[in-house]
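Prompt: Have a read of the protein record below and flag anything odd:
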Amino acid sequence: MNLAYTHLLPADFAPSSRVWIYQCSRPFTLSEVLQVEDMLNNFSQQWHAHGAGVKSFATVFFGQFIILMADETHTEVSGCSTDSSVRMIKEIEKQFEVTLFDRQTLAFVVKDKTQLLPLSQLAYAMQNNFITADTLYFNNTVQTKKELESNWLISLKDSWLARKLALPPVIS
């Protein structure tokens, strides 16, 4: 699994660009990825806030994560424009019979694949070495392009989950 992704992000977006990550309940098939990306591209081209076009980027990463980004240095994304993006994501959920709003399921890289784990099973997975402090975790709480580049795919010990598991703090 090639984990490089930052080179795929738009270089001309501000580091403060807002990011939304939607984790799919299963990997999309290749055919589905192509269809979803068409839907995302159509949405991006028509996304408006207060009548102005939103400078946006949308794609599927690793076959399972929809990334939506808006560079607010051009047009600020407001409640109504955010609602329109949520409607589009819900349309994808319905069309492909997937879940994209489940924040209680975590994603890790295990044995070179994206593996999903319910939050309620996190401690059990650690105790049984399914995951370790060094396991890569998809930190879907990132909110900006800068955070997406530096803090999305990180070791479990470097994430907010480390406190939940009482892992020793990382000393740099």
In short: The first strand starts at residue 18 and ends at 23. The longest helix spans residues 79-96.
